[in-house]
Amino acid sequence: MSRASKKAGRAMAAAIALLSIGLSAGAQTKEVGSGPNPFADCGIGAALFSETKWAAVTSNIIWDIGITAVISATASPETCSGKKVAAAVLIGTTYDRIAEDVAAGRGQHLTSVLNVLECKAERHGDAAQMIRTALTDAVSRADYAGQSRLEKASSLYGIVDRAVVASCST
Q1: CA-CA distance, 47 to 27, in Å (whole number)?
Q2: Residues 157 and 103 occupy one common structural domain
Q3: Confidence category of residue 22, pLDDT binned at 50, 70, 90
Q4: What residues make up the domain containing 156?
Q5: What does 22-89 look like in DSSP terms, one character per residue?
Q6: What 3-state class would DSSP assign to 148?
Q7: Residues 139-165 pLDDT 10s
Q8: Cα-based distances in Å from 20 to 5, 15, 30, 31
Q9: Which of 33, 53, 78 is the last residue in one of the domains?
């Protein structure tokens, strides 16, 4: 078995374990089957294809074998279909590519995040400029280099969220 296959198997086992824990914890208060469908209602797939369930499922499977969708359904089922959750997952999983796009002022990963957050295309330039300025400030701070990837992604999420509120809500 290849190293990648073993890693995928361990990740799937972890996701199933988390799902089992979540299901047993919630079983006392909810009827079986009352939660979201992790593959159709959660993860990146649900954010991008909220009206087309087969496309949401396909996207989630292609993205990471559905692990992110299953974890989001288990950890916070009430937010599964939320655009902010989808944006946070997208930023967390593609941080480096989005940061590159921000540095360039445009790119498909940055566009994807702005689309998930329902920022109109004609407002993308304004949002991208705000994100670029704020990320440049964040990167220039002394503590940036010592931050974990998760901390950097979390900071970028906050930057993107503020830029979308300021640029895309009008």
Answers
A1: 26
A2: yes
A3: very low
A4: 92-168
A5: HHHHHTTTS-TT-S--HHHHSHHHHHH-TT-HHHHHHHHHHHHTTHHHHHHHHH-GGGTT-HHHHHHH
A6: coil
A7: 999 999 998 887 888 889 889 989 999
A8: 22, 9, 14, 15
A9: 78
**How many residues are given for the chain?**
170
| 153: number of Cβ within 10 Å | 22
Same domain, 65 and 120: no
Q: What is the pTM of this model?
A: 0.57
Q: How many domains does the chain have?
A: 2
Q: pLDDT confidence of 127, banded at 50, 70, 90?
A: very high
Cα 64 to Cα 93: distance, rounded to the nearest angstrom: 10
End-to-end CA distance of the chain: give it in Å, rounded. Answer: 53
If one counts every other C-beta atom within 10 angstroms of the C-beta of residue 137, the result is 11
Tell me if residue 147 falls in helix, strand or coil: coil
Task: Write out pLDDT tens, residues 43-55.
Answer: 767 767 767 777 7
Residue among 120, 121, 46, 52 at smallest CA distance from 84: 46
Write out the H or E segment, with its range, that includes residue 54.
Answer: helix 53-64
Q: Which of 67-71, 104-108, 112-116 shows the lowest per-residue confidence on average (mean pLDDT)?
A: 67-71
By CB atoms closer than 10 A (0-12, 13-18, 19+), residue 3 is exposed
Nearest Cα neighbor of 46 from 18, 69, 23, 67 is: 69
